[in-house]
Amino acid sequence: MEIVVQGSYIRTLSFLDKLESLPRYAMITNISTQSKQNVLETKLTLVIYSFGVVQNQKPAEPAPK
Question: Cβ distance 44 to 31 under 8 Å?
C-alpha cells in the first residue's frame, strides 16, 4: 500500500512511531521525503502483515425477542 503523509518533521516522526506500535507488523519497503511550501511530504510504501484473526474482547449480546 502507498500512503502520503504531510506535516512537520515532528508530526511525521510521531506518525511513524504510531505505525511501529500497531498490533500488525508493518514493513516500510520504500520511503521518500521532500519539502513542499514549508510542509514535509513523506511517501511510504508499506506491506502490512496480520497474524490470524483478531478476537472480540466481549461476546455479542443476544438479540431481543
Answer: yes
Residues of the chain short of pLDDT 50, as ranges, are none
Contacts of 51 (CB under 8 A, 6+ apart): 24, 25
CA distance 39 to 34: 8
pTM greater than 0.90 (yes/no): no
Beta bridge partners of 62: none
43's grid cell: 511517501
What is the chain's length? 65
| Sheet with 39-49: strands ordered across | 2-7, 39-49, 25-36
- Grid cell 514493513 is found at 27
Q: For residue 65, what is its C-alpha cell?
A: 425477542
